[in-house]
């Protein structure tokens, strides 16, 4: 109750200090923040305020000993999901439990696919940024 009263006092201070249009904006932000806190507490109460327990078979990449291979595996998984969106021939209801095997060495052909995907993604993002700034300065 004291937090609620202090929130009301704070909102009254803001309404006095700012104009009415700023007050409406700040009021919306406060309401959205309170709703987020309530939903977060509700979500945590479902788990009994404990973090979820995952087994190694739920996410095989976590058990990978090398950080480099872990990053490569994550990139391969992202590339695999994008490929499934474009060409959905190998569909499965659950891609956990070892359905997609890990890349365990550099000799795996999927390693090269992951590297090409990383280079392509970096090139695509840099071209987007470069094109944005060229367009911005071209018309000004």
Task: Explain the overall architecture.
It contains four helices and no strands. It has two domains: 2-46; 60-138, no CATH class. α3 (67-86) crosses α4. The model has no long low-confidence stretch (mean pLDDT 80). By secondary structure, it is mainly α.
What keyword list fits this structure?
66% helix, 2 domains, 4 helices, O-mannosyl-transferase_TMTC, mannosyltransferase activity, 140 residues, membrane, DUF1736 domain-containing protein, mainly alpha
Question: How are the SSEs ordered, and which strands pair?
Answer:
Blueprint (H helix, E strand, L loop, with lengths): L1 H16 L2 H27 L20 H20 L22 H30 L2
Helix pairs in contact: 3-4
Largest sheet: none
First and last CA, distance: 55 Å
Q: State the share of residues found in helices, binned by percent.
A: 55-70%
Count of structural domains: 2
Report the β-strand fraction as a percent range: under 5%
Shape annotation? flat
Structural class: mainly alpha
Number of helices: 4
User: How big is the Rg?
Assistant: 25 Å
pLDDT below 50 for ≥5 consecutive residues: which ranges? none
Please provide the ordered H/E string of secondary-structure elements: HHHH
Mean pLDDT: 80
In total, the number of strands is 0
InterPro entries: O-mannosyl-transferase_TMTC, TMTC_DUF1736
Transmembrane segments: 26-46, 67-87, 111-133
Protein name: DUF1736 domain-containing protein
Domain DUF1736: 48-120
């Amino acid at each position: 109750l004291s937090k609620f009263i202090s929130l009301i006092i704070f909102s009254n201070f803001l309404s006095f200090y700012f104009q009415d249009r700023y007050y409406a904006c700040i009021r919306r932000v406060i309401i959205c923040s309170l709703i987020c806190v309530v939903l977060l507490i509700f979500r945590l109460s479902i788990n009994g305020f404990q973090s979820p327990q995952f087994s190694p078979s739920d996410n095989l990449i976590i058990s990978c000993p090398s950080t480099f291979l872990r990053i490569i595996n994550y990139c391969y998984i992202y590339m695999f999901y994008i490929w499934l969106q474009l060409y959905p021939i190998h569909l499965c209801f659950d891609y956990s439990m070892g359905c997609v095997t890990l890349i365990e060495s550099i000799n795996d052909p999927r390693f090269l696919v992951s590297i090409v995907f990383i280079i392509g993604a970096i090139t695509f993002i840099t071209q987007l940024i470069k094109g944005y700034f060229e367009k911005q300065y071209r018309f000004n």
